[in-house]
Write a structure and sequence with these properties.
The structure holds two protein chains of two kinds. By secondary structure, chain A is α/β, with parallel strands linked by helices. Helices cover 32% and strands 19% of the residues of chain A. In chain A, helix 12 runs parallel beside helix 15. In chain B, helix 5 links the parallel strand 3 and strand 4. The longest helix of chain B is centred in the middle third of the chain and has 9 residues. Chain B is globular. Classes of the chains: A alpha/beta, B alpha/beta.
């Protein structure tokens, strides 16, 4: 019988001929926790008397959500992760190294592998053709110690994408539009498989953005075939030998097939307080914005910073709008410095935040005031997400963010391109 | 497992940020303290009003968002007997079972604030004593019943020395 990408990877990892609906116990290749979920994972292993890592070289503990620590409770939580790494040999990704999902794809994940992570956006690595999914602390703790997890093989929705993006419209606009179309629970439990000519043409950076947001439609994984673009990315990261092709069989069984032509898409914005509350930029243009955040695991890569720096060159942010820029990792940050992007951004009035999750998780580095609105390149906009339930969060592409920073209100990026 | 208590009604799309918000990130290593704020951003008085055995009753996609297991854990610490919703987000659902918090999918439009409920988790039956009706819940998958009956994933793993998902 023929298989989807999820069925192929999970068959290989369970030693079974697995299809959607099957319950399997899978060998996992890598696991991650972060400073919000990792301390609980460590405490669970201590309770179980199993404080170890089955694969320490593929177990990565990230200090990224509150890094550097803004308060003593979090400093102590960080110590739990540092101590666990020291005792077990697991890898510690400390302050300033970057957001877990960006770091996992930069240095750790390969096509055909299985990753479980105690962070919902673990699905980002699906862009490399890996089965990557978010779980809670206890699931991941047991995965770390035993090297295994249980999974129900998900049904797959095929998302077949055609057409060419108009100038000023980006894959981020497509994924926001798609989630608006199917709803924040439209793919609950399912795997999304992105394919078609418009997907084949995407750079890895954009594939990461799409895979990252699969969970915002409720999906368990956001999967891409591993192709020549994947190979080139792995070669660039020094892991060319880890490349392997992976794709779904042509007549694999899909629960649903969505066809989207991106040619007619407009810049798209998710409005408060759900990701599926989408509008075209024209519908919300002029909405006053107090803070713009460019960064995060969704859109904090070098390609994103290039767009923003270019649009802001020779311009400055609106004096009533704060502009925060946070490179997703140290490598992105260094490259942005080498390319002169950081200087341009600072000249335009940006505050540069060290690599990490920045204000996206509402712990530090840009918490909103009562009634304030933020336009962010991040992946979710729930009430309270950025540290204040009285705040309002809009989501958009880096280009929409740059245009918004210039005008101090939500703006169409096309006039600045 | 039979539980009796009062319904606390919530709407659709209650996220993990409503349940355990990021601004209280620093309390994640102090769960009893975090539990005093459970669901605070959806109902500021909920944590004070809820009594052991009471129910969180919600609409669609309860628990969407973050993987934070602290969310179902503090609902349990607050004494909630079960969460009833029309649908759940995937990670929350799995986390709830892992921490031993019963979650049932059922037609919650037939339940109002303060209704007295009696819930049989094993049977998947919700009796609305106030309205005199019985609502059928979607049965939990066998794997999850097994983990829940063992007292959560940690206890399951301890008891069986590994995953034992098809041994029943």
């Amino acid at each position: 019988m023929t298989k989807t990408i999820a069925e192929k990877i999970l068959s290989e990892h369970s030693g079974t001929d697995a299809y959607a609906g099957d319950i399997i116990v899978a060998d996992i290749d890598a696991a991650l926790v972060q400073d919000g979920t990792g301390p609980l994972a460590v405490q669970q292993l201590q309770k179980l008397g199993m404080e170890k890592a089955a694969k320490p070289e593929r177990t990565v503990l990230f200090i990224d959500h509150a890094a550097p620590s803004p308060r003593k409770e979090l400093s102590n939580a960080h110590k739990i992760l540092r101590d666990f790494a020291a005792r077990t040999g697991a890898i510690l990704s400390d302050v300033n190294e970057g957001v877990c999902h960006q770091r996992m794809v930069e240095d750790y994940m390969n096509p055909g592998e299985v990753l479980i992570g105690a962070d919902s956006h673990t699905c980002t690595a699906g862009a490399l053709g890996a089965f990557a999914t978010g779980m809670g602390s206890t699931d991941v703790a047991i995965g770390i110690a035993s090297g295994k997890t249980w999974l129900r093989v998900p049904e797959t929705f095929k998302v077949y994408v055609t057409g060419e993006f108009k100038k000023g419209v980006y894959p981020k606009d497509f994924i926001l539009h798609f989630i608006g179309m199917i709803g924040a629970d439209g793919a609950t439990y399912k795997a999304l498989e992105f394919c078609g000519p418009a997907i084949d043409a995407l750079a890895m950076s954009d594939r990461f953005t799409l895979a990252n947001m699969a969970v915002e439609a409720g999906a368990k994984a956001g999967l891409f075939a591993s192709d020549e673009t994947t190979r080139a990315y792995l070669e660039e990261r020094g892991r060319g030998d880890k490349w392997r092709p992976i794709s779904a069989d042509e007549d694999a069984s899909y629960e649903q097939i969505f066809k989207v032509d991106v040619s007619e898409l407009e810049p798209t914005v998710s409005c408060p307080h759900t990701v599926d509350n989408t509008k075209t930029v024209g519908e919300v243009a002029g909405t006053k914005i107090d803070q713009v955040l460019v960064g995060t695991c969704t859109n904090g890569r070098i390609e994103d910073l290039r767009i923003v720096a270019k649009m802001l060159e020779g311009r400055t942010r609106n004096p009533n709008t704060r502009l925060l820029v946070c490179p997703a990792s140290r490598d992105v940050y260094l490259k942005a410095i080498e390319e002169g992007l950081i200087a341009k951004l600072i000249a335009a009035g940006a505050a540069i935040i060290n690599p990490g999750c920045a204000a996206c998780v509402g712990v530090h580095a840009g918490i909103l005031g009562d009634g304030e609105a933020c336009l962010a390149t991040q992946n979710r906009n729930f009430q309270g997400r950025m540290g204040n339930p009285e705040g309002f969060i809009y989501l958009g592409s880096p280009a929409v963010a740059a245009a918004t920073a210039i005008e101090g209100a939500i703006a169409d990026p096309r006039k600045y391109l | 497992m039979q539980i009796k208590g009062k319904a606390f009604k919530f709407g659709d799309s209650i996220s993990t940020d409503h349940i355990a918000p990021g601004r209280l990130f620093h309390l994640r290593t102090n769960l009893p303290e975090l539990a005093k704020h459970v669901l605070e951003d959806a109902d500021p008085e909920f944590a004070q009003k809820v009594r052991p055995g009471d129910f969180v009753v919600a609409g669609k996609n309860f628990g969407l968002g973050s993987s934070r297991e602290h969310a179902p854990t503090i609902i349990k610490i607050a004494g909630v007997g079960a969460v009833l919703a029309q649908s759940f987000a995937r990670i929350f659902y799995r986390n709830a079972i892992n921490v031993g918090l019963p979650v049932l999918i059922c037609d919650t439009t037939q339940i109002d604030q303060d209704d007295e409920l009696e819930v049989d988790v094993g049977k998947g039956e919700v009796k609305n004593l106030t309205k005199g009706i019985t609502i059928a819940a979607k049965p939990l998958p066998d794997v999850m019943i097994k983990i829940l009956n063992d007292g959560g994933l940690l206890e399951h793993f301890r008891k069986h020395g590994g995953f034992a998902l098809d041994a029943y």
